[in-house]
Amino acid sequence: FDGWTEFNLDVDDEEAGQPHAPAPILAVVGRPNVGKSTLVNRLIGRRQAVVEDVPGVTRDRVPYDANWNGRRFTVVDTGGWEPDAKDRAAAIAAQAEAAIATADAVVFVVDATVGATDVDEAAVKMLRRSHKPVILVANKVDNAALENEAHGLWSLGLGEPHPISALHGRNSGDLLDLILAALPEPPPIIEGGPRGPRRVALVGRPNVGKSSLLNRLAREERAVVDSVAGTTVDPVDSLVEMDGEVWQFVDTAGLRKRVNQASGTEYYASLRTAGAVEAAEVAVVLLDSGEVISEQDQRVLTSVVEAGRALVIAFNKWDLVDADRRFYLDKEIERELRRIPWAIRVNISAKTGRAVEKLAPALRRALASWEKRIPTGQLNQWLTALVQATPHPVRGGRAPRVLFATQAGVAPPRFVLFTTGPLDAGYQRFVERKLREEFGFEGSPIEVSVRARK
Ligand code: GDP
Ligand code: GDP
């Protein structure tokens, strides 16, 4: 299983526009004191505190989640470039370039009460080269009398200047409409809304005890429910009440009839597994605690992880485990399940009913991780510290920098790292491992992909 993590290492430029593509990115650039952070506050509706300027701490490229008329996007506040750096032009280019390169559109802020400066003009050259859509904002136009000042900014050659007052909110709604028009359509927000019972796949190779467990659950809870108000349940599924909640075990018709013992080359068993996993949100993979973890078990586990479903591993037939077996099983787990240390494990017996009541809480925990969203601010605070403490190794005199990250989606959680170049697979796995250490995601696969700026 050496190639294990490869499935989530795909560089995802092709993913743009797909349901799990990250929200489009808007960069806000301009000289210091033109009102960028005031504007960003305005754009994000002050739902998140924009970091105050602290001497010595750059506010460079801090991303925030924004949402306007139900469309979400990410605002990257670029701080200010240093107008009095020694090599001013280079400083401007370096500061703003990375942010602009990763952005889908740029808001270029100019202080209308000051007018266009030579620093602004230098920035315009760079903006033109980027070929990104640019919205020219004339800020600090606090009243109609100041509108004339904004007209002077036509001279920048970026088209119409849009007069606003970031401080008072004047014309900020119009600006948001312009921004949305300039950004590509974001992925739809799938979360929320009424939801039927949680869909669970009960999978594992033949004879691990799937039918026994389903029967046990049905018997123990006495109610295999036939319907839940307001939902239609596929006739091949079973509704089972566990721990006060109704769960939908998908594609259990075969289990109930116990056909899979008679029929069934492994090929058909694996098709059935794939179908059930696809239809489910979370999979319970049953393993036979009395037997070594086999290739076939591994294939079942792989199918769950590759499908991106939450995962609970149930070591069944625990009634047969003695101290001796326990010892070897621990070693096996360490060796065979090394690639999925995050999977939640329960030791059960479908035969005696041992610990079967632990299944529902385990499923809930796995699903919570599967749907977890890390706020962008929190994610980037953590990331900044991480890449500072452990930067990417230098290769051929260069090391790509990780600029920032966003969570592109949930179910499972997907993260996109925006970088100045491709990352080593090893470094990417390092970030992924640290991400888990920090935020958990117990019971859920996560995906980390890289978007290198062009
Ligand atoms: P940044 O360095 O570009 O992020 O600028 P700030 O957002 O920190 O703003 C610099 C100063 O300009 C602050 O004192 C703001 O209160 C002020 N400011 C920002 N927007 C406006 C505006 O629309 N009108 C006026 N009058 N002042 C503003
Ligand atoms: P399936 O093919 O995965 O559906 O497995 P079954 O439920 O048909 O079980 C296969 C065999 O294992 C049957 O003989 C069961 O009685 C037995 N079995 C299932 N669960 C347990 C358990 O927890 N302990 C023991 N000792 N036997 C079990």
UniProtKB/TrEMBL annotation:
Domain EngA-type G: residue ranges: 24-187, 198-371
Q: Which GO terms describe its molecular function?
A: GTP binding; ribosome binding
Keywords tagged on the record: GTP-binding, Nucleotide-binding, Repeat, Ribosome biogenesis
Tell me which residues bind GTP 2: 204-211, 251-255, 316-319
List ligand-binding residues for GTP 1: 30-37, 77-81, 139-142
Q: Which HAMAP family match?
A: GTPase_Der
What this protein is reported to do is described as: GTPase that plays an essential role in the late steps of ribosome biogenesis.
Which protein family is it in?
Belongs to the TRAFAC class TrmE-Era-EngA-EngB-Septin-like GTPase superfamily. EngA (Der) GTPase family.
Could you tell me what this protein is called?
A: GTPase Der
